[in-house]
Write a structure and sequence with these properties.
Length: about 240
C-alpha cells in the first residue's frame, strides 16, 4: 500500500474507479510525513499523517501510532466510518530495453520482461522483476506502464526489432513508425550538465525522429531546436 513519491493527480487516477475503502499511502510533498488517500462514497479523500520527531510516532487525528503498519492495521480492522478494505492495485510495467544492475540496490531485467511496481522515488522505481523474483530500483525511462498485463502486448514487444525507426506504443499496444508527433505528458527541466537534453512543458508538441537504446528519443521543437527527451515523457500521436 506504500507508493512513495506519487503525485496527487496520479493518486486520484489510481483510486477513482476503485471500490470504496481502497487506499494507498504516499510521501507528503509539503510536510514531514505521509498522506493516506482513501476512496470513499463521495470521492477520493486525503489525510495527512505527520511524523512527530519528539515521540518518534505517527499522528493520525488525535491518536499516535508506532508505525504506519500499526495505523493501517488499525483502520483495516476498524468499525469506524473510515474503514480501509484493500490497498490500491499496483501497475505492471514492461521493460523497453535490457537493463543490467550496477549494484545490489538495482535489479536487472530484459526487454519485454514484466516488472511489478512497488514505489517511485524521482526518476527511479522500486520494482519486482518477474524472471528473478528480486526487488530493486530501475530507471523509469527503461520501462513502460501497461496497466493490466496483456499477453498480446508482451508478444508484440518481445518480437520488436532494434531498429531506431520503430517504437512500441505500449498504451495502445501497437507499433508506430517514426517520425511521429509526440505530446509532452510530463514536464522536465534537466540539469545543465546534461548536454543536449531539452526542457519541456506539459502539452508541448515535439517531432520524434529517433528512439535510442537508453530510453531517450531525438526530437525537434517548432522553434527548430533539437535535443533529447525521455520517451516515456511523451504520448505519441496519430498524425
Amino acid at each position: 500500500w506504500y507508493f512513495g513519491e506519487l503525485s496527487r493527480e496520479k493518486t486520484n487516477e489510481l483510486l477513482l474507479d476503485q471500490p470504496v475503502g481502497t487506499f494507498l499511502v504516499r510521501d507528503s510533498t509539503t510536510h514531514s510525513g505521509f498522506v493516506l488517500t482513501v476512496k470513499e462514497s463521495d470521492g477520493v479523500k486525503r489525510f495527512l499523517i505527520p511524523f512527530m520527531p519528539m515521540s518518534q510516532k505517527f499522528r493520525f487525528g488525535e491518536s499516535l501510532y508506532d508505525s504506519l503498519d500499526d495505523l493501517i492495521r488499525h483502520y483495516m480492522n476498524s468499525k469506524s466510518a473510515m474503514r480501509l478494505t484493500q490497498p490500491a492495485p499496483k501497475d505492471v510495467y514492461l521493460g523497453l530495453y535490457n537493463f543490467q544492475a550496477k549494484d545490489d540496490t538495482e535489479v536487472s531485467f530484459s526487454r519485454a520482461e514484466r516488472l511489478y511496481f512497488i514505489r517511485q522515488k524521482g526518476q527511479w522505481m522500486l520494482c519486482k522483476a518477474e524472471s528473478s523474483g528480486q526487488i530493486g530500483w530501475v530507471p523509469v525511462n527503461y520501462v513502460q506502464e501497461v496497466g493490466p498485463f496483456s499477453p498480446e502486448l508482451h508478444a508484440r514487444l518481445s518480437g520488436q526489432n532494434d531498429q531506431a525507426c520503430v517504437v512500441s506504443d505500449c498504451r495502445k499496444g501497437k507499433f508506430l513508425s517514426l517520425p511521429k508527433t509526440g505530446k509532452v505528458i510530463r514536464a522536465r527541466n534537466p540539469s545543465a550538465f546534461l548536454e543536449g537534453h531539452l526542457k519541456i512543458q506539459v502539452g508541448e508538441l515535439l517531432r520524434v525522429y529517433k528512439v535510442l537504446q537508453d530510453g531517450f528519443c531525438e526530437v525537434w521543437r517548432e522553434d527548430q531546436v533539437s535535443g533529447l527527451v525521455p520517451i516515456n515523457y511523451l504520448e505519441l500521436l496519430d498524425d
